[in-house]
Amino acid sequence: MPSDPLTLTFSALADPTRRAILQRLARGAMSVKELARPFMISLPAISKHLKVLERAGLIERSRKAQWRPCSLHAQPLKDVAAWVETYREHWEGNFQRLDAVLDELKSMERSQARAEQ
Amino acid sequence: MPTAHKLQVTTPSDREIGLVRTFDAPLTLVWRCLTEPALIRKWLLGPPGWTMSVCDVDLRVGGTYRYEWRNENGSTMAMGGEYREITPHERIVQTETFDDPWYEGDALAIAVLVENSGKTTLTTTVRYDSKATRDGVLQSPMEDGVATSYDRMDDVLAELA
Question: Stretch B71-77: mean pLDDT, rounded?
């Protein structure tokens, strides 16, 4: 069972129902019953999802058994965003260089075409 | 001056990373940039200070490729693989293995080119052996080069002048 934070976060987010749960909770704390209402699955199934989200530190349960998103624990999501951004920047750099190489090639083609006239 | 096209990073499935980018150039030129070593080493780099010391391409099914990079401190990185499918100007499928594997197993990289009105869209999907590996790749900080900008257009234009 993976336990590093990023793996837990990715696993938690890798399910459309869990993502929808997170979105609902963003509007405010609610009980399991309230949360479950729009979903066509059973309460125990919803509870299972809630446990996964809780283990990833994305939500927590208050004393009154209300589930709410962890504002303090928004960090896991921010960390994911940061890592994806780093990957994107790396490739953005490569592709900007590729833009420049392509411009060079296009210029060369135009010069050649003129020379051949 | 070409329009700046936006790079999209996607996760099409739980073991794939996708990159989608459009270039202001026809298919034939983008294909050359993906397959000719002299051109590849001009752009397939890392953070500033890295150059490509080896770029070998044997572009045929069953042929291999090898890329090695070196930075100013003498650190090196290397990867290579085998071509599984090649459809000229359309599609390349190749395996990807790093010498010092920073992820487990091999990956399969699929590059697809589509041209529309003189612009070419490159979609690259890298498929990892497992979801954990894919997530590890997205997690890696790509050490030296975080948040640096790579605008080399001025340099190239100066070269042409």
Answer: 87
pLDDT band at residue B43 using 50, 70 and 90 as cut-offs: very high
For every residue of B94-119, DSSP letters joined together read: EEEEESS-SSSS-EEEEEEEEEETTE
Contact (CB<8Å) A93/B21: no
Alpha helices in B12-94 (DSSP H): 27-35, 37-43
- For residue A43, which amino acid is it? L
pTM given for the model: 0.63
More confident residue, B109 or B17: B109
Let me know: does A95 contact B21? Beta carbons within 8 Å.
Answer: yes
Shortest CA distance to B133 belongs to which of B110, B109, B101? Answer: B101
Helix (H/G/I), strand (E/B), else coil: B40 = helix
pLDDT at A109 over 70: yes
Is B111:B83 a contact under the CB 8 Å cutoff?
no
Cβ-defined contact of A90 to B9 (cutoff 8 Å): no
- The β-bridge partners of B64 are B82
Contact B33 A101 (CB under 8 A): yes
Reported ipTM exceeds the 0.85 cut? no
Classify residue B92 as left (phi > 0), alpha (psi -120 to 50) or beta: beta
